[in-house]
Amino acid sequence: MEENRIIPTHVSIIMDGNGRWAKQRGLERVSGHKEGRESVRACVTCAAKTGIKYLSLFAFSEENWNRPVKEVSALMDLLVDSIAAELGRFVENNIRVLVLGNRKRLNPIVQNSIRSAEEKTASCTGMTLIIFLSYSGKWDIFQAAQRMAADMAADPKRKFSMEDFDSYLVTAGIPDPDLIIRTSGEQRISNYLLWQAAYSEFYITDIMWPDFREKELTDAIEEFSRRDRRYGKVK
Ligand code: FPP
Predict the structure, then answer these.
(1) What pLDDT is stored for residue 5 in this prediction?
(2) Is any ligand 1 atom within 6 A of the Cβ of residue 40?
(3) Which residues of 130-156 are buried (b: 16+ CB within 10 A; e: fewer)?
């Protein structure tokens, strides 16, 4: 590992390829998700050890509700089980958990599980682990616009800035991702952090999510360290 590498403040991951990983091995899709959970574990540990302040994971999109009911419920069960299994470790390691997305669509068991994880880790000051659940970028921008429009109507004299708009997004107060990683080789944003990704660096790897572990995350951070970020300016 390079000594003077630049550690991104916020790393976000589009975890993709669980289904294909399973198919390649003649297994059910859910086996891919189960193995993917081990990658989540490995990456959370590695990110916290590396000094990353925010690690966010795209766990379930608004569009994923259109998957077969069996797969959706397997994913929700896996999430609830993972939270229950890892909660103690999050507290021990000072990791704060936040779940962001359209929570109204989640069933009460999932809602209770995430509320409890958020409450029990609320005072943790180390890394923040953000799980995007029932999330889409367009949904986030739309709900933010609706809420800001209501505040504008209620207070017509008040001027609103672009920065004010940030505070209506579900990611209010969280720095935009410096690095967005996508596994499984797909080269698209898939309705993820559309507003927040304005100047994120992208890292796309052919590795399927269940095979993306500590070494793979470390490689991505090293590659990020070599990027020249100009934000549209001339250096
Ligand atoms: C994408 O693979 C992956 C998902 C939709 C779910 C990711 C969920 C986990 C890894 C479960 C555990 C999560 C947490 C946060 C504990 P895909 O099904 O789209 O794969 P494919 O593109 O190959 O079909």
Answers:
(1) 84
(2) yes
(3) bbbbbbbbebbbeebeeebeeeeeeee
Q: How far apart are the first and last CA of the chain?
A: 27
**Which residue, by CA, sits nearest to atom 15 of ligand 1?**
59
State how far the Cα of 138 lies from the Cα of 129, in Å rounded to an integer.
22
Q: How far does the centroid of ligand 1 lie from the alpha carbon of residue 200, in Å?
A: 22
Indicate the domain borders of the chain: 10-137+179-225
Q: Is the CB of 17 under 6 A from ligand 1?
A: yes
Q: How much is the pTM?
A: 0.96
- What local confidence, expressed as pLDDT, does residue 21 receive? 98
Q: Determine whether the shortest distance from the Cβ of 101 to ligand 1 is under 6 A.
A: no
Coil vs helix vs strand at 26: coil
**Residues noted as catalytic:** 16, 64
Helix 108-120 to helix 69-92 angle, to the nearest 10 degrees? 20
H or E element in which residue 93 lies: none
Pick among 3.30.479.10, 3.40.1180.10, 3.40.50.1700, 3.30.930.10: CATH of 10-137+179-225: 3.40.1180.10
- The Cα–Cα gap between 11 and 194 comes to 15
List, for residues 142-175, the tens digit of each pLDDT value: 999 999 999 999 999 999 999 999 999 999 999 9
CA distance linking residue 83 with residue 48, whole number of Å = 17
